[in-house]
Write a structure and sequence with these properties.
Pfam families: Sulfotransfer_3 (PF13469), TPR_15 (PF13429). GO terms for molecular function: protein-tyrosine sulfotransferase activity. By secondary structure, the chain is mainly α. Among the domains are: about 60 residues, no CATH class; about 280 residues, 3-Layer(aba) Sandwich (Rossmann fold), CATH 3.40.50.300. About 60% of the residues lie in helices and about 5% in strands. It contains 34 helices and five strands. Strands 2-3-1-4-5 form a five-stranded parallel sheet, with helices on both faces. The longest helix is centred in the C-terminal third of the chain and has 21 residues. It is elongated, with a radius of gyration of 33 Å.
Amino acid sequence: MAHAPASAPNPPLPDALAQAAALLDNRPEAALAQAETILKRAPGLPPAELLACQALRRMGKPAAALPRLATLARTHSRVPAVLWELAQAASEAGKTHDAILALENLTSSQPTVASGWFLLAKELRKSCRDEDAWRADLSGVHASSRDPELLKAAVAMNEDRLDESASLLEARLQRQPGDPAGCRLLGEVNWRRGDMTAALRWVERALELAPGFDLARDFLVRLLLQNNRLREALEHAETLGASPIRSPGHDLLKASVLVRLGHQEEAEQLYQKLLAQNPDQPQVWQNLGHVLKTLGRQSEAVHAYRQAVFHQPTMGEAWWSLANLKTVKLGPDDIAAMNQALADLEREREDRREDIFHLHFSLGKALEDATDYAASFHHYDQGNRLRRSMIRHDADAFSSEAAAAAQTFTADFITRMGTGGCTAPDPIFIVGLPRSGSTLVEQILASHSQVEGTMELPEMMMIAGRLQSRLDEGEFPDFSALISSLSPADRARLGEEYIERTRVHRKTGRPYFIDKMPNNWQHVGLIQLILPNAKIIDARRHPLSCCFSGWKQHFARGQTFSYDLTDIGRYYRDYVDLMSAYETAAPGAVHRVAYEDMVTNTDAQVRRMLDYIGVPFEQACLEFYNNDRAVRTASSEQVRRPIFTDGLEHWRNYAQWLTPLIETLGPALDSNVQQSAPDRAD
């Protein structure tokens, strides 16, 4: 008699559970069927019940899973997986209250599980418990700081193994796309790589996932500042200021945004508030000094800088800020204090190089005022050498770029390009080298009722940099091909972009505004292509006066050419050559103002300049020193006084040490800078 085949034996329960779990992600229906089969063999088995609920949720049936999970949680309330699944199902079923209760239990028993905190924050926001949600996000960030995988990626990043760090984080985010800490860290890796677009995208994603992630928002504000997206930076800084975890750093960051926006008075209020809470803050005293200097309140600025060095005698930037007040002289006691600060810093020289070079510049200025020119030059030289070692400046590459612009913008080329661009007449560009008298020109023009002074605006440099990147990436064979590719519509779009992006800096309804970024001389051709009705004023100064003054000036940012006498001589020569070529190609398009002419024949020079712009003469332009507008450059206090001539030839006191500069300038020394360029023919 034949026997019926024996049925396959059931696998052991652990194996059956493992098989069902393996089906969860891709075949949740099959996982559910297996879990239910197990439950028939072992009714109420908690792992099988949890598997069934997990499968139901993945099938889009959280409401069906919820009562079973609630029952399971009553007997297994300390099992994190049960609480997590209950919270997820409740959230997806719209049962916010139940989700919050489950997540509060989970985070109480498992405070190092970051994902629990972040989901709790999301549910709390649904219940309009915004401050509690913010605190939950912060707890999630704190928990993430102990995550071994994130720590490994952070170590790789800090050791400059950026590709390794990025690979670790990208793999993690494939598995956990909702991880705010991983997103923020990947944003920083991309920032260090120089990919600002990716950096912004990842940091913004971190804040979408965890709006209470204060460190990510702080980082985003700094990224937005670097991109000159000031309105957005202020919005995020204000949000950061509402954090339930108060930090003076939030106020400091907001103040820095306000300063960039030109809201000096509001920034001052924040600094004063911080100092009222704790006066022992040298950095805040220094920042307050910068604002007061910009507002023209010099005696208060001096007090603020003095407080900074009182609280931190080795604070080089505060000493330089004092020395850089051109109408203030540092005395013997100050010189002794700065020398002592240098001696104190010698033991930690590598870590305090910024303080050291600032102190050298400060001593150079103090000793110059004391007429000890040999000692003064020594300190200027030491400061410049140290600063030059910390920056990158390729003089050959820069000269090549300037030459390419000169060779491109010929008369024939300008004619061939024809009309185009944004026709707005609003901008007045003041270009040239730093320390060329451009702030004086700006102050004179900003005293006119139809002209608004703003500051050194980066927008044109950013537009030009974006175009240059297309050349650097190989999209065009040379600069001329790049510029030739700009259609009239392209030029109009770029000009309109400039007008729109600079609008944030305009506080009045005046029809004209000044952009005093000196480096825009590199882009006079581009300016005329995209803003054909803009005015361009070339502020020129005797090459030795200008270059030496720039060399002994430490600039807060940029101007990387200025820390070596040969570099600055080459830069001046490139500038003269390009401006001369453009004058030949487009006579009168640029109006030249020689500083020496302006200080010796002010009335005539002011009238010629106003005629070029097309506005009537106003007496206020000759009384520019009465204008109380904010001025942020190194000459801020000088332009609050009537014209003076005592600084025209300071370089002669140092002539014996300026041979490298003189030899580099070569033919540029013979350019007749006091012969102003002819005006544009009407």
